[in-house]
Amino acid sequence: MTSAEADAGFAVPLVVPLHSRRRRRAQAVQGLQHTIPAAGLLFAGMQGLAGGGDGTALALALTEVVTSVALLATVLRSLRNLRGMRRAAASRTSAGHDAAVSAPAAPTPGSSAPAAHAPSAHASTAHGGEEHHSIDWADIWAACVLLAEAWHRWHEEHHVARPALVLAAVTAFLALNHGRLTRRMLRRRALTLTDDQLSVGGRGWTRFRVAWPQLAEISVGEREARLRSAAGVVRRIDLADLENEAAVRVALQAAQRHLASRLHAAPAAPVTPVTPVTPVAPVTPVTPVTPVTPVAPPVRAGSGRA
Known about the structure:
alpha+beta, three-stranded antiparallel sheet, elongated
């Protein structure tokens, strides 16, 4: 552990992704939406095979059946994996919550910080319980179903289904870049602790980022965590929605200890000595001036007439 990590109390940078259960459910619903056109395409393919066509019609019917069955099987397997991961995440959450409750609390000012193992970024990231493959096969088969639909329209009506082709291209692009896009999204929404700041992503492109001296409060409750900056900006983390709740709790407790140690180690601001005020000299009262009596002009002798 480096000196910066020893001062922070955790391995820097500590990056913990936020695996949302709501996002998982939204992805499952999106996969179920793909099954609607797949069921219709499977029915059309079965009709084509029952019609006894040959050549292009037989190839089209086989393509419709294979792509629709593959999509339905992939979606069902994803739902089964989702249920298994939910059970595993629930067991990890209960075990991690017990460990988090028994973990040492954040030190108060005036007390020494308890010794604790610093959580590592690699270990915390691995507790997400979510594997991100480079390709999303459900979307791959969904794109194949769209292409089969476009082929069916061309075979039946000699009409180019441009919307289906564009949607198939977009779906295939997202499927091939699924792993990279998911990792980028998780990095953006992750809880990140460094020796300089704490940051966590929010909805859309917003991000709560604040330096440690500007962080006022970190509170961790039963269902949510609350981060508040000195400027009054608040970021809430729904712990009950996270699959890796235990890893997030451990990281937040490490952040609490680090914040408390910084507050305890912060030097007091020097007091500026007060300059004594020079007493004001009393004002001497002014003596009133005596008014001058006007002098009568002298009278000239002989100036009068006889």
